[in-house]
From TrEMBL:
One Pfam family linked to the record: Plavaka
Protein keywords: Metal-binding, Zinc, Zinc-finger
GO MF assignments: zinc ion binding
Residues covered by the C2H2-type domain: 1-28
Region feature (Disordered): 173-196
Keyword hit for Transmembrane helix: no
Official protein name in the record: C2H2-type domain-containing protein
Amino acid sequence: LQCLACGRNFTQSNAYSTHMRSCRPQRKRMASALELAKETYKRKKFRTALNPPEQEQLSQLNLSPAEPPVEVSFVSDDMEAEISISLAERRPRRENRRLPLRYRVEPPVQLPGLPPSSVVDPVASVSSIPIPISSESHQVQLPTRQILKSQRNVFGLFRQYFAVSFPSHDPDSEVQLSDVSHSPSDDDKAEPLPTKLFQPYPNKNAFLLGEWYWNGGLQKSKEDFKTLTNIICDQSFVPADIRDVPWDSVNERLGESADSEDMWLDQPDAGWKETAITLSIPFPKNASNPGLQLYTFPPFRHRSIVSVLKEKMTNTQDFPHFHLEPYELRWRRRDILTPESIRVHGELYTSPAFLEAHEEIQALPAEPGCSLPRVMVGLMFGSDSTHLTSFGNASLWPCYMYFGNESKYRRCKPNCNLCNHMAYFQKIPPGFKDFTALHCGGKGPSEAFMTHCQREFFHAQWRELLDDDFLAAYEHGVVIECCDGIKRRFYLRIFAYSADYPEKVLLSSIRNMGNCPCPRCLIPKNSAHLLGTKDDRKQRRSLARVDDRHYKAKILGARKLIYQNNRTVDSIMVQRLLKPESLVPTENAFSKKLSGFGFNLFSIFLVDFMHEFELGVWKKIFIHLLRILECVHGSTDQLNQRFRDMPTFGRDSIRRFTNSVSELKKLGARDYENLLQCSIPVFEGLLPEPHNTDVLNVLYVLAHWHALAKLRQHTDLSLVVLDGITTQLGELLRNFQEETCADYDTRELSRETAARVRQTAGKPTSNKKNLGHVVDAVGSSSETPIAALNLNTYKDHSLGDYVESIRQYGTVDSYSTEAASPMELEHRSPKSRYLRTSRKHFEKQLGHIERRQARIRRIRQRLNGNGKIRSVLIHEKAPDPSASTYHIGKTQNHPIDLGAIARRAEGDFAAKDFTKKLKEHLLPRILKKLKINEDSLGSGDTSMEQLAQKWIVVKSDRIFQHKLAHFYHTTYDVRRSEDVINPRTAHCDVMLLADLEPNGTSHSDMTATHPFLYGRVIGIYHVNVVYVGQGMKSYEAMRFDLLQIRWFQVEISDLQDRHLSEWASLRLNRLSFPSMAFKDSFGFLDPSLVLRGCHLIPMFSSGKRHPSGTGFSGMAKDGNDWRGYYVNRFADRDMAMRYHWGLGIGHTYS
């Protein structure tokens, strides 16, 4: 084998392959060929855009079916890239053969690109709808808008716009399946760059070092060390460039506030401001100095929302991904013949709320003399106080802002830097108590008074954020020239505010845990347990909170009593006015500033999945189940043992549990999620009947609701399912409370008692010895209090709002505060920046560091746009695009002799007939690869099994073992995911599609046949074989990858047999190993047929098959086998959707 680029010769193929990946002449050759192909494709695409085919124009006008042919394969890039490559280097071609539809797993693809806006003629549109023009804007003639539909991709997804024409700005076209890594060219004679590009750095090398220090991460890793060495070892690095650099002044210039007119180095910049806030503090009649007293709080650091928007629109890296025109994302299923499509819910910019606001803005009266395009900007806020260190009391209360016009998948990536730090909220300073004590006559202020002052101070800070520029942009829009050179008028709208319940109470100006605890409606707390009932659904609509005159009149009357009549904030007269609706006497900043524009402040407080369910309802149910187990001797120890024996799954889907789960030590939301996902087999059999069945039913529906509510992509069909599960959950929870919980005398857990004692006695939590004495004293002096299950809480009530919230605003991952949400991930930034401050007045220093890092990124973008300097930062490697289905290594370092396996066959069932089964498995694959029709083989009386033994020769009588196999699959939300299978660990189980149509059975008949097969991988191999039978073409060995499988058999339970659907039985699928003596217990499997890995949980209640730990097969390692297993369909969201047949958009086989 010879490398044509450098001329080197190789005798082994693996050495040749290794060299080809590292050969610099070859890489340069490939890079030039790729660039040539790209230029050719761009010219061809441009010509096609100017002169589209007639059939394409008709399809874009929706005058002919837009379904793309199934067999279409775009290969122009590869074909044109090979023009400059020799014939020896070109990739061998094969026919575009495709699996049957039921076995097909399509890789993720982006939405089809939009046609040029000139293609669609508004007059000729069959669905044009004129816009009503206001009388005030008669001088401006608005064009006719219409419904426009894009083409569908392979998954049946398409976009539907209501616009004059297709938008020319298409952020979805920027979505890439993988980032292509281009090798840098060796340009030793690069031209010097002008120093103004690096300002305020004096030269390139100074900038690279500054970028490495500030934006390369606080804790330097090996990759950071390599980056530094790349900088100083570069041929253009000159030590004199950094010798006399005034680093302190450069850093100060980078972090300073913006110059006049919000500009920094002639570019829009959203710098930080400091505002001193002065409030009138109302002291009641019984104070020594009654009346209003002024108090000035410490400076409040914040940024301008409009300035942040201007900075965003001039950001060349973010603007291509910013959606200027919203659309409906719709889905047309393959198994439905009707032309009706289904709405898809996910992103905020495709939600009905966003589209309605966009239509309202388009219908606004035109500004005088303005005909610029109107763009609606969706703002999403979030705030949450966080500790900056593990020890100490340093904390920060940041306010984050995201743009809903950007994809949630990019917002949750910290490397995209899409989170905008808008403000660092201040709490009431310690000196405020001295001020109040002075005017109260030495008597300290009441708790209600301090709470009222904190509310007033918080909303005063928000009034500064909602400044005059924001109000002008909200009403009239703000004109901004974007980085593409086009001027547009942007209108601001607020859609969501993510916060936990205490902060929602503060923001919505309602009473904490009052009689009406919900910030969205006025349903009383004693009706929260009616979740899912018809009355509950009606009341959520009829009793919705509205920022109307009635609400404002109550607030104004209460404030008059406090600020003019000098009444206390918790006086009887004030309570009589506000308590029925759980209001507080605070003038809400959102109401004061935006209610005049029709804004309802209560509509932005959406559901919070982490606090309301994972750390709310489910945590409460789990703790009460522990209380019930305390009533049954030994059950708690069994529960801990079962959780310890729980196998893990995925990279981090199901993690290892602690040794004693019942102690609830250091458990976060992620841990409670895993507890729910694995709880059904753990709790099975711990309680007597009928309570065991009731508990399993509740756990199953809780896990089902959790899986559906947390989906990242919903459709109208899946929301109907979630709505029904919500009703079922409410019924089961009430039944569980009335029947199971009533039969047990549940008491506080020891951990709950200790927490209560600490709270009442004020004991420190870190002193374990003193804590033990306190708990023992309490336990000996009094009986442990009764602890009952309470379903009348806000968190129980909030579960009924999820369906409507998803339907109106998109899926919950956009606005939840969970650990993987953008807001929670962003907490890492201020924590890392805090370590670079002096710890004194750190809010100001944090603002400087934020600006410094942002401006360095802007310099980098300017240099990337210049095209003459590349980033030396190490980026995450993209997955190999060629591994579309699976990947098994190429090494042959672990050969296994077939004769050695045959000698083990007498005492090992897994080794019995190993070679025979291997050849029988390989024959159909060989015939398929060689395109030999099995029916054309003149075998006579000889069976195919016999022919396999004669026609297949295993090279050197050896197979080669591998430790890992990587399987790639498309998830329900059309994303790419990976499962790693390792036969030596618990991650060794796989699932694949069963043959559902042996006799032409319809796909819709999924109730009679289980759709999947399950197997345990006991070996990963590849084999080199030579085919010497009929139709042979050469004696060249062919490589085949294969898995040795021990098959499971699916057991149908009595409940599943009585129900039409597996979901209706409320039971997991049960599996078991057939007898090893059975002929088909072991076999081989083509890795390409594997769907993905699966999570199997032992049936703990049935026990192990071999209590002694000694099995029958060394290859199968069956010594630790259990009598049965449960298929955990709740292991992750994609797994749950695979059992909702036909609802997963990415699951094309269904």
